[in-house]
Amino acid sequence: MQQVKERAETRTLAGDAYATILDAIRRGSLPPGQRLRFADLQALCGTSVSPVREALVRLTAEGFTLADNHRGFWVAPVSAAEMMDIVHNRQLLEGEALRLSILHGDAEWESRVLAAHHLMARLPRERDDIPSAMRDDWEQKHTVFHTSLLSACGSPILTGLCGALLARAERYRRMSVSIPGVKRDVVREHRDILDATLARRPEEAVQALREHYQRTADAVRLFFDRRQEPG
Predict the structure, then answer these.
(1) How confident is the model at residue 157 (pLDDT cuts 50, 70, 90)?
(2) What is the mean pLDDT of residues 208-219?
(3) List of domains in the chain
(4) Which of 44, 69, 112, 123 has the smallest set of CB atoms within 10 Å of its CB?
(5) Beta carbons of 65 and 76 less than 8 angstroms apart
(6) DSSP sequence for 184-225
(7) Whole-prediction pTM value?
(8) Checking phi first, is residue 183 left (phi over 0); if not, alpha (psi -120 to 50) or beta?
C-alpha cells in the first residue's frame, strides 16, 4: 500500500515538473538548444531528480527536448523546416476538426466558442513593458479559443493530435510577435474565423483558419530568413 502511494506521489510530482519545464520552454526562459542540467531543473521545479527525469523523458517523446546518452538533455532547436511542418499539419488536421465541429456542434458548443473569443479579445496580445513579447494571459485565452473551435469534432484522437500540434506551435507563435516590420490584424483574423464558424459556413471558416496559420508561418519564416542574411 505504501509503495502504491509513493508511486502515485511520484507521478504527481513528475506531472508538475513536466508542466513547469514545458511552460519555461514555451515562454523561452529555457531557449532552444540550451542544455538542461538536472540541478537547475530541480531548483526550477522544487523537486528531486526522479520526477525531473520522468518529465524529461515525456518531453523528449513529445519533441520539446532532445536526449543523448552522453550529452544528457537539451531544449529542442527551432527551425523553419519544423515550423512549416507544424503549420502544414495544423492546416490539415485542425481544418478537418473545425469542419466536423461546425457539422456536429450544438448550442452549448457555440456558447463556448463565443465566450472563449470574448475573453481573448478583451486582452491585448503584446506586453506593455515589452511590446515585442506576447502576454501569457492572452496566450492562455488564445489556446482556449482555438481548442474550443475544435471541441465538437467528435474524435478524441483527432482532438489529441490537434492539441499536440497547438503546443508545438507556441514557441513559433511567440516568435512571430517579436519580428519587426510584420503588420497583421490578428483581431480581425480571429473575428473572421469566429463569424464563419457561428454562421455554419465550414468552407469559409476552414479557409480563414488556414490563412491565419499561414500568416504566422510567413512572419516566422521572415525571422529565419533575416537570421541567415550576411552581416
Answers:
(1) very high
(2) 94
(3) 11-73 (1.10.10.10), 78-226 (1.20.120.530)
(4) 69
(5) yes
(6) --HHHHHHHHHHHHHTT-HHHHHHHHHHHHHHHHHHHHHHHH
(7) 0.84
(8) beta
| CA distance linking residue 122 with residue 169, whole number of Å | 23
Which range is least confidently modeled, 67-76, 160-169, 207-216? 67-76
Report the C-alpha gap between 78 and 63 in whole angstroms: 11
Instruction: Look at residue 65 and give its three-state secondary structure.
Output: strand
Closest C-alpha to 55, from 4, 16, 9, 7: 16
The helix (H) or strand (E) run that includes residue 74 is strand 72-75
- How many helices (H) does the chain have, and how many strands (E)? 9, 3
pLDDT band at residue 4 using 50, 70 and 90 as cut-offs = very low
Give the span between the Cα atoms of 63 and 211, in whole angstroms.
Answer: 25
Sheet strands side by side (includes 72-75): 35-36, 72-75, 65-68
Question: Which residue has 503546443 as its cell numbers?
Answer: 167
Alpha-carbon distance 58 to 39, whole Å? 18
Mean pLDDT across the chain: 89
